Amino acid sequence: MKPPRFDYVLPRGLEEALSVLAQHGEQAKVLAGGQSLVPLLNFRLVRPAYLVDLNDVAGLDGIRVADGWLCIGAMTRQRAVETSALVRERCPLLAEAMPQIGHTQIRNRGTIGGSLAHGDPAAELPAVVAALGGELVLQSARGRRVLTPEQFFVGYLTTAVAPDELLVEVRLPVTPPRTGSAFLEVSRRHGDFALVGVAVTLTVDEAGVCTAGAIALTGVGPTPVVAREAARALVGVRPVLAAFEEAGHRVAAGVTPDGDLHASSEYRQHLAGVLTRRALARAAEHTGGRGATGERR
Amino acid sequence: MIERTIRVTVNGRPYEKTVEVRRTLADFLRDDLDLTGTHLGCEHGVCGACTVVVDGAAVRSCLLFAAQMHGHAIETVEGLADGETLNPLQEAFREHHGLQCGFCTPGFLMTLTCFLRECPNPSGAEVREAISGNLCRCTGYQNIVAAALAAARTPRQKS
Prior knowledge:
The complex is a heterodimer of chains A (about 300) and B (about 160). Chain A has about 300 residues and is of the alpha+beta class. Chain A is built from 12 helices and 14 strands. In chain A, the strands form 4 sheets. Chain A has a 5-stranded antiparallel β-sheet with strand order 4-5-10-6-7. In chain A, strands 11-12-13-14 form a 4-stranded antiparallel β-sheet. A 3-stranded parallel β-sheet of chain A has the order 1-3-2, covered by helices on one side. In chain A, strand 2 (about 30), helix 2 and strand 3 (about 50-55) form a beta-alpha-beta unit. The termini of chain A are far apart. Chain B is an alpha+beta fold and about 160 residues long. Chain B has 2 domains: about 5-80, Beta-grasp domain (Ubiquitin-like (UB roll), Roll); about 90-155, Orthogonal Bundle (DNA polymerase, domain 1). Chain B has a 5-stranded mixed β-sheet, sandwiched between helices. In chain B, helix 2 (about 90-95) crosses helix 5 (about 140-155). Chain B is globular, with a radius of gyration of 16 Å. Chain B starts with a strand and ends with a helix. The chains are: A alpha+beta (about 300), B alpha+beta (about 160). Chains A and B meet through strand 1, helix 2 and helix 6 of A and strand 4 and helix 3 of B.
């Protein structure tokens, strides 16, 4: 179908964008890459009075490293993140997840901030940000606040972004030395939303013993699910298959995904365990080389 | 605003038009510029039939608004052939029977045009991944992959 009527606002700067949002509040929708919003408009599932297009707002895109954080502007195109040497070097987990988002045509237009603010329960980026313990920077005419993923993702397609706020930046900790990571998912077809996806990191000491781990899943709940206990159980053990299998069992036992047309609850639970085991094994292979370059200060 | 006057370049030709802001790029190309080679399948970003190239990047024209295209350069399927002479990619589709009903073909051609610029010597697996965002209900994709690989081998395509 065709989108319903709306009033189009094209702010030239962040201040102007924020004042428009302050003025119109819930009547306004923010247009970033449009890869989730425009289908909703075309289906007429959303009917905003105002569409605030961020594509001409300067300063909302770009990738940089500052104080041990990889900082990515919300309007940075997913394709730019995917092809960034800085991302590959400093945050291999993000680099590995990017090509699994939609298709090239989608990533050419879609933005990192748009995907996070949309909060799809089967999307890749929320799990990556949750696994890494990233920070989400929100700005409004009232000021700035920085949220953790737990604070940011509230529920199904719902985030803590207020109607007058914008997600302006995502910060991910630069991957420390001797850390491996992996993002694995199972989907019906390449480029589809994941039935289940898992993001993991694994850090070892010089003797090869695990000192830290993180596991976050997508597709098993309304928001990304962080498997804290399963990750904590990896600390102090050797990164061997038995430990990863144990982690997989813990993760599978700890999730209660909804079933739907595409996969039953039991199957998703099974996938969560298997993917966790495989992702940890893959991450363990990379604790030596990749990621070792990024010193976290 | 409800309407916006935009200046765009389509296949190298400049246009200036006033459009309703809710007009998608696909409808703008088809209905305002009469460039009906760009096809609309699903209108929600799944089928890839409406793929065009904007500033060198393949995008879904059903998910963009014409009002956003002010100052941008668009390439559509109409820009590929030189008069009656097909370009090497189109010729390869014809040679390898890379289409049957032809509805999805413009989207495949534009996706592959962009892909072969970035990846001039692809493997079969790379071609399959590149076209994963385009649906074809006739060919089973095999001949589309063969056509893309053949076009990549054509010297003119590489230059």
